[in-house]
Amino acid sequence: MGKQKRERTLADSEAKAVCRMLRVSPQKLNLVAASIRGKKVGAALADLTFSRKRISGDVKKTLMSAIANAENNHDLDVDNLVVAEAFVGKALVMKRFQPRARGRVGRIQKPFSNLTIVVREVEETA
């Protein structure tokens, strides 16, 4: 008997990688994700390699995972891949408290984010 096989949510020419619980605010992560959106994979990797943002290393790791998924699981050509989507979601927020003057308390929020990268194979135009 067993479970029914779940239909694939992506097209046949797409592959996806998800990185969860990144220790950075979604707003900061979205700045890096926006810098690679719509670019060819080689250019996006080069941008992330030389980016000065701390989180760009984790974004690069996720992009490389999406490329590996496309190559190994879906038999797509790496040279024709484009970053179709790179979107950021909110994860949990750790709340910490810092003592302040006159017996008050300062609330510190430490947000986490989720990152999803979808790469798509495009046909080369001659």
From TrEMBL:
Pfam families: Ribosomal_L22. Keywords: Ribonucleoprotein, Ribosomal protein, RNA-binding, rRNA-binding. The keyword Protein transport does not apply. GO terms for biological process: translation. GO terms for molecular function: rRNA binding; structural constituent of ribosome. The globular domain of the protein is located near the polypeptide exit tunnel on the outside of the subunit, while an extended beta-hairpin is found that lines the wall of the exit tunnel in the center of the 70S ribosome. PANTHER family: CHLOROPLAST 50S RIBOSOMAL PROTEIN L22-RELATED (PTHR13501), LARGE RIBOSOMAL SUBUNIT PROTEIN UL22M (PTHR13501:SF8). This is Large ribosomal subunit protein uL22. It comes from Pseudovibrio axinellae.
